[in-house]
Every structure is written in structure tokens, then in C-alpha cells.
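Internal ticket #5521
Category: modeling
Description: The requester needs a full-assembly model to guide mutagenesis choices. All entity lines are attached below as received. Residue total reported by intake: 1016.
Assigned to: D.W.
Attached entities:
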Amino acid sequence: MIDHILTLLIFFPALAAMLGFVVTKDSMRAYGIAVAFIEFVLSLWLWYAYDPMISGMQFMESMPLIPAFGINYLLGVDGISLFIIILSTFFTLIGIASLTETRRLKDLIITLLFLEMTMVGVFAALDAIVFYVFWELSLVPMLYIIGAWGGPLRIYASVKFFLYTFTGSLVMLVGMLFMAYFYYQATGQWSFSILEWYRLILPENFQLWLFAAFFLGFAIKVPMFPFHTWLPYAHGQAPTIGSVILAAILLKMGTYAFVRFSLPLFPDASVFFMFPIAIIAIIMIIYTAMVAYAQEDIKQVVAYSSVSHMGVIILGTFALNVEGVSGSVFLMLAHGVVSGALFLLVGVIYDRRHTKLMSEFGGLATVMPRYATIFGIMMMASVGLPLTINFVGEFLCLLGFYKQSHMLTLTAGVAIIVGAIYMLSAYKKMFFGTVTNEANRNLKDINRTEMLGLIPLVIVAIWLGIYPKPVLEPINNSVESVIQLMHDKAQTPEAKARIPDLSGNNGTISLQEAH
Amino acid sequence: MLEPINVSIASLNLATLAPMVIAIVGALTILVIDMIKGGLNKTLYVMISLLFLLLDLGALVDFAGVFLKNGTVLGFFDVMLMDGIAILSQIIIVVGSMLFIPLALTSKRFHEYNYPEYFALFLFMIAGFQFMVATDNLILIFVGLETASLALYTLIALHNRSKSFEAAVKYFTMGALAAGFFAFGAMILYAISGSVEINQIATVLAEDHYRNIGYVLVSMAFMIAAFGFKLSMVPFHTWTPDVYEGSSAALAGYMSIVPKIAAFVVAMRLFEFLVHSGVVWLQVILYIGVVVTMTASNIWALVQSDVKRMLAYSSISHAGFVMAAILIGTTQSNTGLFLYWALFSFTNLGAFTMLWVNRQKDLLPGQSSDHPYEKFSGMVKTMPMGAVMMALFMLSLAGIPPFGLFWGKMYMIGSAVSAGYTVLALIMALNSAIAGYYYLKLIVFMFMKEPMVGYEKLYFMNASLSLKTIIGIAAVGTIFAVFAVNPLLEVITLFVYNSGY
């Protein structure tokens, strides 16, 4: 069974969703929680069975799908994808457990389980077409969640979300077909296997074009400035569960794909585009932070802050060294936990007051002390306070990029610190002062169901902030092999110089620096 | 006095006629049955048509075996040409017909199915299409084309609504024009090469190194116009939405698949040798035609308010997409053409059948056409299974993996990439993105809006067990297409490659 655990992880929720059609409405919630829990335990088992000392792919599965065109059902995990898979199953569980939606709950839970299949599938796929299948398929449940359970502008928001990402990924598909064709020219055989593509060294100008094609698909998904305009709509209109999954997992697909595809496939192009992308990332950090400051809706603040932090992830990824890339992978997890938690928290207050305007609140700390505490912890984590999960990731990202450019890193660092203002001011507006609005006077503090969802997130956010080693070490091992591969494949002297050669030392220094 | 001509029967190789003859005999049988005892039920005729089509398919599979062993089979003074693409396209034609003929088994009564002639004409039409693809003789192509088209015009008109008459007359007029163009094109080709057989023409033209290139181009202009009408390429597409709207959804679905594959095969035979011999002008015209057809029809489809008209424009766009295969002209692209069309026929079958099951007799007050988007509004709440099915077909048409058409699209774009048509590949990809919007629009109506009062009874009013079975077959074919792609690819590549395309 352990040999096929990835297939099991992918298709178990889908199968359960299919069977879920039979379950009656009032039992659906328990069914959803049970399925998501089993899935989460399975993913923990995957972690348990995973050997952190091995940097390559584990639990590989292979089955021919369309051998005539080189498409195979290839799965595998390494340290980079392992934890994102666990994050996906974790958030599906938390999302379903803390679900407060009552309209057509059955459809919602079935959709969420299908979504879980596509999420795990994206991160476990090692064949470009299988990856693409899950990547595209993930749009459909999300479209439905936003479009059917969202706010007043839900249809516009969901269609915009779908079409934006769909367009980007079709360009990426053309890029993938080109990759396969180059592989065919080089070896006489069609292949869409990512691991086989890794062995292919392309001339620099081809790399630049292909990098651009893949970049469009990934950048829209992340979303990077200036392709980010769909995200505020999607977040603004989506129901709580939709925002949580979108921010915690779906956006990570883009950043994960950068690490999985763009870096190792096109090392020279990555170096070539390093500074332009870093500048875009810094614009993202500063610009979206400014926009966040101007928002009146707390959910939009969280949404823009989430885009802002995605900028740090991109910056870390394009540091192209072990510290930066490990940091960015770690920050993906941290960002998932923190922004997912913040969206859940916004959902809590929205359920009570049916408004998300900050001006409606004020002095909530006296009425809802527990809520204010958890919100405070998560806000501190989001700002990147030391000893919280975000700090580790952000620090490593900046450290990594510092080795490439001092100036840009300083700018980014200052931007992150200044960016904390909007979170703090939002917190102040909502929680401090006296209760001015009568409607807030008798609000109930968070109940047990909500606690159930939030407490694990708080624990994770602090635990991994203090002791990130169990997660960081496997990530580090796998990232090292990616960086080494990039160094070996790099052709231009600049790329050789920028991407460190790890064959001498094994990069453990970076870990010590993190502490 | 003329010498008596001495031809041995064996040299005629009458077996090459077998598939078409089976269809014709089937049609005659239906007429004879009606003559002996009139007033029989449509179920009888549907089943008889199915049986004869099954026999037809059997004969084709037999030919497929012969082809794989001995190569191309010629017959009837080399007029009949049973090569790989002829066999493949006939299989698609016959299987497509077999899936569409049971759509006559509606639970509501429709005028046209009471006539046994309907089914006889249907089988004649299939024979016509089969003749059209199984030859490279321009005259027989013409005869096959006209037999099939005339039968089809009648089938449309039999639907007995004012819009159907309009559609039939429109189609007839346009078809007559196309026939005229075809005749002119063939005439000029005959004048410069002294032959009506495409491979002979190719040889003659190659031998004198395209000395008469001017005439070749004029004839190609006529031919492009003729096939432009048949394949509904922009700007010869204007009849398509009206004709689709006028005919029954079942027949509209049929028209979007079977006549087009026949026309594609002839276009492949005719244009490909010219594209390969470097007639740049033709390449440019085809390139423009393909891009304009894909893009313009997509944009028109965006603004439609009726689902059937939207599907009509979408099928124009799909035809343009597939026409790219003929422009690219590699074995991979031609394989892609057949793969795409096989997958497309399943998905489109499902989509049009879904429209067919909710066909009303009379429009509700305020309803502008048979299938406005509003009709499907909130369908997921009243008819969840139906909405899921419809959404599935729409997602497949939009090219969302892992559903059927995605694999066709991927392979077609892949063939454009390998043949060096990078810009074309990008245009094809971006067109799929534009198309996403109008397919999505129906999904938005079905899943995200509130139901409209009065429509909920209509969704499955026409459904019978056989129609539901057809929808089921289409759905299975669409969902599990991924497992069919590899065998299909292997077989199609073998056939296409061995036919020299």
C-alpha cells in the first residue's frame, strides 16, 4: 500500500466525493470531516514513511497513459512537495471542520473533496501533462465555490478568476509541448516526464522563450504584479472556505511550479530574468502593501497582504541559492498557515456581523478576548515577528537574495517592515479603543467549532517558528539537489557564478544561520 | 463498330463497394417494408437502420484488416480508393451515424420520424458521404457530395417548422453555390491536367513543374470556396447558425460532425499535395482562413443568446482549429485531425443530445428561441444530474483536461509545435481561452443563478431510456477519453501513415 500511497492520496477524496452523493444532507458535514481526517492521516503517514535524508523523489509511481505521445502517469514527492501536500490535506480538514456555511452544504463538501484531489495531484505529479490536468481541473471546483456561494459580484469574480488562469495555462501548455518536442529532437522519443526534462540542456535563447511561456502561466496563478487583478475580486467575493483554500493552497501552485519547472529546466534564463523578476517582486511587496493600507474591508486587507507576502516568496525563489529557495518553500507553508488562519478569522466575525468593514468594528478586544488573542498572534505571525513561522521563511528568503544583491534586499526588507503598518493599524481599528457600535456590544466570543479549526493553526504557527528543523531539513536536502542540478546545467558564465556549486560543502551552514 | 469491352468481374473488385452498398440496401429495405405494410412505428426503422449500419461497420473493419495486410485497395477501374484515411473516416461516419440515429426515439412525437423516408434518406446520405471519402476521383466526389447534401436538405425540411424550411432552403441555395464552385474547380483541373483523379493531377502537375500555376491557383480558389461552404469556414459560414437553429438539435449535432469529416478528408486529399509542393499562395490562404475562422467565430459565439446558436459558432471554430491540420500537413497533424474529430464527435453528441432532450413543442411566453441561456438557469437545483452532464460536455468543449477534447487539442497544438508553426500554436491556444468564456457562460447559468419558474419541467421532457443511454455513452466517452487516446493514436497513426499522409 505504501508503494501506491500517492495514488491513494489523490483519488481517495475523489472517490469519497462520489460516494458522498449518497449521504444525506444532515450527515454530510460529519462525512466530510471523516474523509478529510482520513486523508490527513494518510498524508501524515506519508511524512512518517518519507526518508528526510534522501534528496530525490520518493514513492515514485509510474504507469503508461499515452505512451505513443510520451505521457505517463508519473508521481513522486520530495522535500519540496511533501509538506505542501500535507498543508493541502490539513487545510481541507480545517476548512470543512470549521465550515459555517449552511446553504447547500452537501454540494459544497463534495466540491471541496474534488478540489482536494486536484490539489494533491498537482503537487505529486511528475509528468508535465498530469500536472497540467490537475492544475486546470483545480479551476473548476474553485469556480463553483466562488460562483455559487460568493458575494454579490460572485459571477464576475469567478469568471475572471477562471479565464485569467485558463489563458495563462494555455500558453504554458504550448511551452510544455515545445519542451516535449525539444526532448523528442534530442532523444528521438516523446516524453513529458519532468525528471527526464531535467536532463535536457537547452540553448539560452530557447530557454528565454520557454521561460516566458511558463512564466505567464505561473505568474497569473501566484499572482504576480501586474497579473494580480483577479485576486482581490476572487477573495472579496469568495465565501470564507473559498478564500482559505485559495490563499493557503491554490496560490502556492504557482510558486511551487517555479521551483519545480522554471528553475531546474531553465537555469540560464532564471539568472537572466532574476533581477527583472526581483524588481517585480519588490513592486508587489510595496505596492500591494500600500493598497492594503487604503482598504476599508478587513478581508481585502488580508487579501492584499497575502499578495504582498507572495512577493517575498518569489524573491526567495529567484535568489537561486539554497537559502533563498528553501526559505521560499518554507514561506509557502508559513504563508499558507498564516493567511489561511487570517481568512478563517475574518470569516468568524463576518458570520456574526455580516459585514467586513473595519469602520463597523472597534474595541472588539473587550467583547471577544479569545478572538482578539488569536487574531493578534496570527497578525504578528503575518507581520513576521521572530519566533513565528513567517519569520523563518522571510528571513531565509532575504538572506538568500542578499547574496545576489544587497540593494534590492535592503529595499525589500524595509518594505516588509513598513508593510507591517497596515496590519497593525487594521488590528488597532478593529480591536482597540472602546466599543462604539452598539451592534458589537453583545458579540459572542469564538465557539468550540471555531476553536477546533484555529487552535491547531496557532500551534503550528508558533511551533514551526521556534523549531523549524523537522520541516526545513527535508526541504533543504531536496532544494540542494535542485540547486546543484541548476549549477551543473548552467551554461553562461554569469549563471555559473550566480548559482552556487554545492558539490564541495553540503550547505548545512544555512540551517545554522536560520537559528 | 466498336470493340466489345471485355472486363472481368474480378478486376472490378466489387468488394470495395460493399460498405456503401450495404447502406443503400438498408435504405431500399426500409422503403420496401413501408410499401408492404405502411404505418409502422419509428422504433422499427431506427433498429433496421442501426442493423444495417452495424453491417456497414463490419465491412469497414474487414477492410481495415485487409488494408493493414495488403495496403490500399483499389476497385472499379481504380475509381474506388480504400486507403487508410478512407477507412478511418468511414468508420467515424458510420459510428457517428449509429450514435445519432437513436436520437429519433424521443418520448414526444415528432413529425419527421413518422415517415420511413426519413430513415431511408438518412442511409442514402451516409452512402453518399462514404462514396465521397472513398475515392480520389473528382466526379465521384461530386456525386457523393450531392447525394448526401440533397438527402440532408430534405431531412432538415422534414422537421416541419417555419424555421426549418428557411434553414433547408438556405442550406440548399448555399450548397448549390458550393457545388457550382466545385464543378468549376474540377473543370479547370481537368483542363490543365487531363485527368479527374487527384493523384494523376498531382503527378501531371509535378511533371511539368507547375507551369500552369495560374490556373492551378484559380481552380484552388474555387475549391477553397466550395469546401469553405461545406466546412463552414469564415467567410463562407453565414448559413451555419441559421441552419443549425432551424434543424432539430439531433440533426444539428449530426451536421456538425459527419458531413465535416467527409469534407475534411477530401480537402486533405486535394490540398495537401499542393501544400507539400510548396504552393505558397495556398499556404497563405489556408493560414489566413484557419486563423480567421477560429477567431472570428469565437468572437461571434461570445455574443449569442441561444445555446444552439452558440454551439453552431463553436463548431465553426472547432472546424477552423482542425483545418489547421491540413495546413500543417504532417503525419502527426493528420493523425491529430482524426483523433480530434473522434473525440469531438462524442462530446458534441452529448451536448446536442442534452439540447434535444429539452426541446419543447411551443415556446413559453417571453422565450425568444428554443434554447436561450435563461432556460438552463439554476438547473443544478432542479435537475442536478442533467446539469452536471451538460457542464461536463461544456468543459470538454472548452478543452479542460482530462476530458475528451483536451487530448485532441493538445495533440493538434503539439503537431503545430513540431512542424514549426509556433505562432499558429499560440493562436490556437489563445482561441481555446476565448472559447472558454462562452462555454463557461452556460455553466454560470446552470450552477450560479436561481432557477426560472416554468422551465424546470422542460429539462428532460423529451428524454426516453435510449436518449439517456446515448447521453451516458457520450459522458463515458468524454470522461474516460484519456484511456482511449493511446489505442486511437496508434491505430490512426498506422492508417494515416500507410496512406501516405
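Resolution: model delivered.
Comment from assignee: Residues 11-361+368-498 of chain B form one domain.
Ticket closed.
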